[in-house]
Amino acid sequence: MEMKNGSSDEGFIIMGLSDDPHLEAILFVLFLVLYILTVIGNMTLITVSVCEPRLHTPMYFFLGNLSTLDICFSSVTVPYMLAQLLARRSISFIGCAAQMYTSLLLGITECVLLAVMAYDRYVAIVFPLRYTVIMKMSVCITVVSCCFVSASVMAFVDTLFSVRLPVCGQRIINHFWCDPTVFLKMSCVDTFVTEMVIFSAGIFALLLPSLFTAISYICIISTVVRIHSTEAKFKAFSTCASHLIVVIIFYSTAISMYMKPGSKTFENRDKIVSVFYIVTPPFLNPIIYSLRNKDVKMALQKYIFQKMFSKHVMCSATFQKMSTVK
User: At CA 181, angle to CA 95 and CA 76, rounded to 5?
Assistant: First the structure.
């Protein structure tokens, strides 16, 4: 069997999600609609967070960054996946490495950011009087910057160890994007070191943030149950419910992808899990936060009303001007 270094200039053929033309057409329409709704939903959330003064708080600062990450993360993978559903596509080695690094960078940043958002909710509920002092905007900006820097280092290490593996035989990726696990499957040499690097990065990027999030919510629950007022309990839980739902969806799919032993089987299962990991959380995040957050709903209603009112005023002014001319 011919063995070629993974860093050669040759490209790869990406097989995509399916070989059935009819299924590919259905999937193309479905994922195109989901991608458009994902971008619109997250852009709306960002716009509302920026334009509404009442939402200029640490919680919505983190939420705006989360929506930005979701748009970028979806845009790195979904458009290329849509192109593959129309025709088999090749990708250069540089393009594959760039896609892998960028998607890992954004995904790991989101993992750590979700843990930071859990800490933000912990401070807001456990130390409400000191919240504005602890979660100052300068602190929030520094924390987000640290999330990005740490994620960039882990993404670089994962990408470097993945693409340096020698590829045996045909350079065919039985997937719809350049994920680190596909290089493990294409390589015919011992991949133990690379698997351990990916697994170790997963501990820092997934297990530790998820553990930190779990501890934060244990402290939150223990504080809330001691509150005597039922209304206050409900309000406290409602502020955390949206984030908790997002955390469960994102961490569960990410851990099922990267925190498992390396295997060259169950490739179709890996594709399905990857679809849920890439498509579902960015699409659901703005819906969950909008439907379960009264402040966001009020800001949206206010924003929509202002737009409709301004258009009505403009139309009235134009009509009056036309009547005067006549």
Answer: 40
What CA–CA distance (Å, rounded) separates 214 from 201? 19
- Residue 235, helix vs strand vs coil: helix
- Cα separation, 37 vs 27, in Å, equals 15
CA distances from 83 to 28, 172, 177, 243 (A): 9, 17, 11, 33
Q: What tokens were used for 38? A: 């994902």
Of 181, 187, 182, nearest in space to 165 by CA: 187
Residue 128 class from Cβ within 10 Å (0-12 exposed, 13-18 middle, 19+ buried)?
exposed
**pTM listed for this prediction:** 0.86
User: CA 250 to CA 256: how far, in whole Å?
Assistant: 10
With H, G, I as helix, E, B as strand and everything else as coil, classify residue 90: strand
Q: Which helix (H) or strand (E) holds 4?
A: strand 3-4
Question: How far is 124 from 122, CA to CA, in rounded Å?
Answer: 5
Q: In the Cβ-directed half-sphere of 110, how many Cα atoms lie within 13 Å?
A: 28
Query: Can you give the pLDDT of all 326 residues of the chain as single tens digits?
Result: 445 555 455 688 888 887 788 888 899 999 999 999 999 999 988 988 888 888 889 999 999 999 999 999 999 989 988 888 887 678 889 999 999 999 999 999 999 999 999 999 999 999 989 999 999 999 999 999 999 999 999 999 999 999 998 888 778 888 888 888 888 888 888 888 998 998 888 899 988 999 999 999 999 999 988 888 888 788 777 778 888 888 888 888 888 777 665 545 456 677 888 888 889 899 988 888 876 677 777 777 776 666 655 554 444 544 455 445 44
